[in-house]
Amino acid sequence: MSSPSRSPQQSQPNQPGQPGPHTVQPVLQLQNLTRVHGSGATEVHALRGIDLDVFPGELVAVMGPSGSGKSTLLTIAGGLDTPSSGRVIVENTDITAADRKTLAALRRRSIGYVFQDYNLIPALTAAENVALPRELDGTSARKARREAIAALEEMDLGHLADRFPDEMSGGQQQRVAIARALVGDRRLVLADEPTGALDSETGESVLALLRARCDAGAAGVLVTHEPRFAAWADRVVFLRDGAVVDQTIRSDADSLLTGRTAE
Amino acid sequence: MSIRHGLLALLERGPRYGSQLRTEFESRTGSTWPLNVGQVYTTLSRLERDGLVEQDGEDGAGHALYTITEAGRAELKLWFEKPVDRTSPARDELAIKLAMAVGAPGVDIRDVIQSQRRHTVKAMQDYTRLKAQALTALESGAERERDDVAWLLVLEQLIFQTEAEARWLDHCEARLIRLSATAPRDGAPPAPATPPRRAEPGRAVSRPGA
């Protein structure tokens, strides 16, 4: 479908192996995604034909007023909800067509979530929390722990490994949650208002970590209503009433400051 | 005025010549407000006229050096102590534009808001990237630390300012939608809430003003 809201930047060829300007495949592809709640007179169109590609190394922020479909988009992208039509492709697998087993495996192996309220398991230490998805995926406890410690250390969180959630600050818990989202080979992180419960400076450190993980090759989708946090993204997509109405495109920051380019 | 006091503040650290002042001013503020050498010399001669600085010999390369006087120090102290006046706001083009867009025929105010929002958020992205670079520079090097801190503060001011604007735009949009939902059918001026799609060029959706 063609709508005037469609951005020319998103019309990359998506078939694996097809030559195009991007030789790199998107980690996440949303294709003509719609979601309708209810039917008949009470029908609500939560999403109306969303197209979005997220490439490795890219952090995309999704903004919009409440009820614009931001969270619906994220839950469908992560396979927690199913679209009414359209496709969700994660690491070249169409999760809308996948059977339950494939979907469950994909969720364990490829997709990490970060929620506003951290969602760490209170009875497990930071390292155990991070190791959990790997263990669920069949990795031995010892190897899973090793990977968890490595993930924590890579994010300068090694000192928190043996702490329980209630022994950590909100910001620390959220950073551990990001480590959990990206442990092992996972490189898609979906973050729903991850800074919502944090003060402004702590929120910023969480965003800086998310940014750093994307710079290191992960693909991230960040839902937020805070422009200051969205500004850490490479691209900001604006939703309104379930459709993409606009987006920013990354530019050379130095062009902003005339004095700098002259030097 | 800010260039005047900015130069006084730099001169308080010791004698300097014109282009050196320009370089130091820009490295503090990250060239956000570029100065040309002409402006620097014009300002210096006014400061000299007012007895706040004086010429004081030359450096080895023959540059005329300026130093701050006691009166200059007093003026600078006063500047730091006195808050910047916010009671007579500068004219803001965006506020004027939105005020004019309310009820303007042929103008969809939500499109005006959205195109500004895109631009504003984009500027925030750019500032934020510069800020991330500044933070990295601060963590890695100690040499120009003072300038890096100053630059970081200026950048964050730009980020907070653009953020305030983005939030205000969100607020305007929400208010307009609320007003148009409660407005009497024919009368009152609030702008219409348009369907959730971009306006085609030339599409006029605004009601004629009542």
From TrEMBL, chain B:
Annotated transmembrane regions: none
Transcription regulator PadR C-terminal domain: which residues? 91-176
Q: Which residues form the Transcription regulator PadR N-terminal domain?
A: 7-77
Q: Which Pfam families match?
A: PadR, Vir_act_alpha_C
**Which superkingdom heads the taxonomic lineage of this protein's source?**
Bacteria
Q: List the residue ranges of the region (Disordered).
A: 182-210
Protein name, per record: PadR family transcriptional regulator
Q: Which organism is it from?
A: Streptomyces lavendulocolor
